[in-house]
Write a structure and sequence with these properties.
The protein has 9 helices and 17 strands. By secondary structure, it is an alpha+beta fold. Among the domains are: about 130 residues, 3-Layer(aba) Sandwich (Rossmann fold); about 90 residues, Beta Barrel (OB fold (Dihydrolipoamide Acetyltransferase, E2P)). A hairpin with a 2-residue loop joins strand 4 and strand 5. Helix 3 crosses helix 4 and helix 4 packs parallel to helix 5. The chain binds adenosine-5'-triphosphate. Adenosine-5'-triphosphate (ATP) binds next to strand 1, strand 2 and helix 1. It is an enzyme of class 7 (translocase). One of its GO terms (molecular function) is ABC-type quaternary ammonium compound transporting activity. InterPro entries: AAA+_ATPase (IPR003593), ABC_SmlMolc_Importer (IPR050093), ABC_transporter-like_ATP-bd (IPR003439), ABC_transporter-like_CS (IPR017871), ABC_transpr_FbpC (IPR015853), P-loop_NTPase (IPR027417).
């Protein structure tokens, strides 16, 4: 049998909002501070006039069946707007959303068979844990429903919680119940909007593992919105990086890290030093600059007493390491991580060609 399962398609999607100049936060041109002179001029707007914000600007991507894709970007980059457009919660100014090639424009949100999970677990407080998980299973016969609830509570690591009140759960447990509830009806796509961002760091790292295991175990196709790079890289098969509504790059975590498509992507990922030819030559990377811009990341340099000697500019103690700032021959700064503060004025370093980014 020939199957035609292509999963989710996002084709040239544009999402625009009409915003009123009366909204808090909007500053009319006359009131803008002087230093904003370089910003593009907007036409003067009277209170009550409408203007539009383009939140998603011609984004195209695909999510294959069983694939987990992360939408990663800074606040305001358009991640949630794109997710809401996929869900059918935001109208498209242009473009198309498809599932297995079929246009979903005529399919309302509740008929798309997409599950959603948000930062707020939004459990029903009047229902116990089991009934929350059973919420989308009304079409299943009672005995099967109980088995499904048990199976998904098991999967999220809460096997004996069905009878518990939702008000007695910790934040992490509540998110696990929300995950079980959104997966139990077997949605063809799960949309996750920063579901872990309200949890503290330790719990968030743990929950990334839980989420990853559960999505893989159930073969769930998912789109996960986050502004946390570690979370995106740990969870996703491919990551879409957004800025100002535009898709900057859509690739595997490995490719994004080693071959960012632009300096903008490299900077976003934490590459801070873009080598001049002189600096690249000094570090033994000159041959790479013929075809690429070479960028150093946080771990591109390692200590090697026999390597090139660089002057120490400053040192800062971080969680579990010391961040040393070194000066390259051109005077540009480069970072080095060491376990303890260095006492000498210079450090010998070596560069691992596999640990630098090649741009372009
Ligand atoms: N309902 C709305 N009305 C007007 N403008 C909106 C609305 N929702 C979002 N925007 C604007 O659209 C742009 C993208 O917002 P969006 O919430 O999609 O970004 P985001 O990347 O999800 O941000 P965050 O990580 O802060 O949630 C922003 O400029 C935002 O101010």
């Amino acid at each position: 049998m020939v199957t035609n399962r292509t999963g989710l398609g996002v084709h040239d999607v544009v999402v625009r909002y009409r915003v009123s100049t009366q909204q808090p936060g909007y500053t009319t041109p006359a009131k803008r501070p002087l230093f904003s002179w370089a910003a593009p001029k907007r036409p003067a707007a009277e209170p009550g006039d409408g203007r539009t914000v383009t939140a998603v600007d011609g984004v195209s991507l695909d999510v294959a069946p069983g694939e987990v894709v992360a939408l990663l970007g800074a606040s305001g980059s358009g991640k949630s707007s794109l997710l809401r457009a996929i869900a059918g919660l935001e109208p498209l100014a242009s473009g198309r959303i498809t599932w297995d090639g079929e246009d979903l424009s005529g399919t309302p949100t509740h008929k798309r068979n997409f599950g959603m999970m948000f930062q707020d677990p939004a459990l029903f407080p009047s229902l116990n844990v089991g009934k929350n998980v059973a919420y989308g299973l009304h079409k299943q016969p009672r005995t099967r429903r109980a088995q499904t609830v048990e199976k998904f509570l098991d999967l999220v690591g809460l096997p004996s919680f069905a009878g518990r009140k939702t008000t007695e759960l910790s934040g992490g447990q509540a998110q696990r119940v929300a995950l079980a509830r959104s997966l139990a009806p077997a949605p063809r796509l799960l949309l996750l909007d920063e579901p872990l961002s309200a949890l503290d760091r330790g719990l968030r790292e743990h929950m990334v593992g839980v989420l990853s295991d559960v999505l893989r175990a159930t073969g769930t196709t998912a789109v996960h919105v986050t502004h946390d790079q570690d979370e995106a890289f740990a969870l996703a098969d491919r990551v879409a990086i957004l800025a100002d509504g535009r898709l900057l790059q859509f690739d595997t975590p490995e490719n994004l890290w080693s071959r960012p498509a632009s300096a903008e992507v490299a900077t976003f990922l934490g590459y801070s030093t873009f080598l001049t030819r002189t600096d690249a030559d000094a570090l033994g990377l000159g041959h790479l600059t013929a075809d690429h811009v070479v960028a150093l990341g946080p771990e591109s340099l390692t200590v090697d007493p026999a390597g090139v000697q660089l002057r120490v500019k400053e040192q800062k103690v971080r969680r579990g390491y010391v961040q040393v700032t070194l000066l390259l021959p051109s005077g540009a700064k480069a970072g080095l991580r060491v376990p303890e503060k260095v006492s000498a004025a210079t450090v010998g370093v070596r560069t691992d060609p596999d640990a630098v980014a090649l741009i372009g």
